[in-house]
Every structure is written in structure tokens, then in C-alpha cells.
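Table 4 source record.
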Amino acid sequence: MVPVRVDARGMRCPWPVLRLARAMRELGGGPVLILADDPIAPGEIAALAAAQGWDVVAAGEAHGWIVASTKV
């Protein structure tokens, strides 16, 4: 499945994480390619993913991560 792209570059936290959470909710668990260049974003994305039971992997794009639900 091709991830939905959420471009949050130029946004300061918490906006990238809020955009990710909304996309994951709307998609029922992703996958979502989130692009965020705020230096705090990687930690915030990881924390949200851990709290929700989502997997996060680095994407091939700079400042990009693919997030998907691990829940069945």
C-alpha cells in the first residue's frame, strides 16, 4: 500500500504530530509518510507512535518517516 503523504515541513511542533495523528485517524492506521523539518519532530513522532502502538521507519526522503499501525 502506498503511504499517504503529509507535508508538515516549515511547521513547528506540535503541528507535525497533530497532522500525523489526524491522517492516521482518517486512514484507520496508515501508512502515512510524514515530512517534518522541525528538530523536535522526530522525538514527538516517536513518542506518539509508541503511545499509539504504531511503527515508525525512516523514509528515503530527508526529514521523512513512514508511520503505520501495528494493531490488528
